[in-house]
Every structure is written in C-alpha cells, then in structure tokens.
Amino acid sequence: MPRLKGYIYLAFVLSCSFSIARVSAQDSYYIEEPHMSFSGGLIFGTNFAQVDGDTYWGYHKVGLNTGATVYIHFSKRTGISMDLLYSGKGSRAASTVTSQNLGLVIEQYHIDLNYIEIPITFHLRQSAVIMDERRVIDFELGASYARLINSSEWAQTDYPVVIDPNVNYFNTDDINGIIGASTKLYKNLNVNIRYQYSLKTIRPVDRVPLGFSYGNGQYNNVCVLRLVYYFNNNSQQY
Known about the structure:
Blueprint: H1 2-32, E1 37-52, E2 61-73, E3 78-99, E4 103-130, E5 133-156, E6 173-186, E7 189-198, E8 219-230
Antiparallel strand pairs: 1-2, 1-8, 2-3, 3-4, 4-5, 5-6, 6-7, 7-8
C-alpha cells in the first residue's frame, strides 16, 4: 500500500509539472508572436514638383499632399501602409531671354496636374543615433496609383504658342515608384519625406505642345515633405 501511494503521488507531481510546462510554453509562444495592430492618421504636406521632359528643370511647382493613412503593423519593425491623398503636381518655369522682336522677355510655363493618389508602401523600422539622440527611423518603399482630376497648361513666350486641351491632353493615370523615411517629431506627430517618380509617361511626345518637349515623353518628378498625425502611437514602438 505505501508503494501504491508513492506511485499515485509521483503521477500527480508529474502531471502538475507537465501542465505547468505546457502553460509556460503557451505563454512564451504568445509573447514572442508578432502582434498585428493598426494605426490610422491624417496627412498634411507639400509636393515640390517638376515635369521631366518639358525642357525646364527645378522643383518649382508647389502643391498640396493631404489626406488620410492606414498603417498595419506586422511587428515592431515591419508593416505596410496605404494612403488616400489629394496630390498637386506639375511644373513652374520662368526665364529671361532676349528677343529680336521684343527685346528683353520673361518666358513662363505652367503645368498644373491634380490627382487623387493611393500609395501603398512597405515599412522597415530601424534604430539610429542622430545628433547624440536615439531615434527610430521608419524606411518605406512602394508604389502609387494616381487618377487625374483636372489639368491646365499655360505658356508665355516671344513667339505664339498653341495649347489645345483636346490635342495636348495628359494621361488620366499615373503610376509612381516611392521611397521615403519618417521619424517622430512630437508624441503622435511624425515628419515624413518621400521621393517619387512616374514609372510610365504622363504624356507622350506627340501630345506635348511644340517647343516644350525633349526625350521620350513627360514624367512627374516629385519631392514630398509631410506631417503625419497618428491617432495612436503604435508607429513609434520599437
């Protein structure tokens, strides 16, 4: 009988030990498993744009980059985001030339392109020391689809320029490659910089007004500076 009691006691101890080990393993699994979460936010920023292929250069066109964003966090380091934006792009140029007929002339050229744009970017967050301060840098890489809402084009030169919206129209779609980075500015407020470039022409050569074309077409070339406010601070975790 004492031996039977010993066996029962040993079986009880082993059963309890197995249960505790199983619970500990489950807890460890859930602690290590990446926790998916969401962040929603608002965006307000500025595009500094030019149109490559219009015979001018410089990011002189200033347009709005504003809307909303959703950020899905796969883990503390990785995630994906999607924005819904109003985005103003185009070109601004002015130069002084000497005309045989008019003397000193200021030539001007304006392109205004307003889009609804949907960027999707993948994120990788890394810790870095900047000016003796540890910061989390959120790098992003992706692409966007933009739908043209409206456009306008205007030129002033020493010779007549004919711009016909029915002939010199822009493509209704624009696809851009995107690269960028963000960091926290204050609490839930982040500062974001982006560079994006059209992956296909926004207007082929045969639709560009005479005298305002070079290369194989025109492309949006944009630098972006934005403030992004998240309603929660998941984006700051590391």
